[in-house]
Amino acid sequence: MNKDILQGKRMAVLGSGNMAAAIGRGMAAQGLPLALCFYDLDTAKAAALADELGQYAAATLAAALDGADIILLAVKPQSMDELMAELAPLVRGGQLVVSIAAGIPLAYYQAKLPGLAVVRAMPNTSAAVQAAITGLMAGELATAEHRQMAEGIFSAVGSSLWIDEKDIHALIAVSGSGPAYFYYFTECLAAAGEKLGLTPEVAMALARQTAVGSGRMLAEREEDAAALRVQVTSKGGTTAAALAVWQEKLPGLTDEALAACAGRSREMAEESGY
Fold first, then answer.
1. Pairing state of beta strands 132-138 and 117-122?
2. Pairing of strands 56-57, 117-122
3. Is residue 62 pLDDT above 90, yes or no?
């Protein structure tokens, strides 16, 4: 990613919750050349985050937008209608709008903010440790430069990839909700270790660090997950005995679980009215 695409740019961050904070901290850690201005109805919260990062906080929405090249929408979906009503008279041509609000489609922003380029983003909670994977979706007016700017923003919290908006529910099922699956598997692994005689503390320490190490292998080695699995699995050995059980049951359970997740995501999108 070319950091220069953000050089001299200013981003208004509307909202100062966990994800806004993660993005700001990631940018600070990576030294991205982008000035940030935080705005939140809770002005003290926005000011505290801005102070932590050596950035700015605005007392009003108009002040936050003044001179902004990028507007990051980091508010709860249920607050979006109210924000749009306030935002529409204040935006100007040429600004890029990036939204991380769940469940609200590109068409909503394009209708509320006509003429502006919009990018929708779906990061996951691993943004807190700069290891997220973010799905990016481009609106009708988003140019190649806008795409590069969006990639630059989310490079601060991990990696990103572009998807068609129609695939958002599948993305949520795999990566949006995905961290919880690995946490739960770690819980199950530790619980099984206890049943084999380990103390809870030892079982969790083993399970947790095994998850950490496996994640680092996936991140740092060129081999794919299947190849790494094969490297650990000796024919007729202990790992093969465990995998034989999982290979019989886990693929079907995973299909069922992700289908349930994607289905609920579609239901929630319909319930939201967007």
1. antiparallel
2. unpaired
3. yes
pTM of the model: 0.92
Q: Where are the alpha helices (DSSP H) in the chain?
A: 18-30, 43-53, 61-65, 80-87, 106-112, 144-155, 168-171, 178-195, 200-220, 225-232, 238-272
Q: Where are the domains of the chain?
A: 3-168, 176-272
Residue 1 above 60 pLDDT? no
Determine the distance from the C-alpha atom of residue 225 to the mean position of all C-alpha atoms in its chain, rounded to a whole number: 22
Please state the rounded mean pLDDT for residues 32-61: 94
> What are 192-233's pLDDT values in tens digits?
999 999 999 999 999 999 999 999 999 999 999 999 999 999
Instruction: Give the pLDDT confidence score for residue 2 in this predicted structure.
Output: 60
CATH 3.40.50.720 for domain 3-168, yes or no, is yes
- What is the C-alpha separation between 248 and 241, in angstroms, rounded? 11
Tokens linked to 51 = 């102070």
Rounded CA-CA distance 116/131 in Å is: 30
Q: Angle 262-265-269 (CA atoms, 0-180°, nearest 5)?
A: 145
246: number of Cβ within 10 Å: 10
> What CA–CA distance (Å, rounded) separates 117 from 106?
10
Q: Which residue(s) pair with 56 in the sheet?
A: 37
Q: Exposed/middle/buried for 214, CB within 10 Å: 0-12, 13-18, 19+?
A: middle
Compute the CA torsion angle 7, 10, 15, 19 (nearest 10 deg): 0
Q: Are 67 and 36 in contact (CB under 8 A)?
A: no
State pLDDT tens for residues 153-179.
Answer: 999 999 999 999 999 999 999 999 999
| Whether CATH 3.40.50.2000 fits 176-272 | no
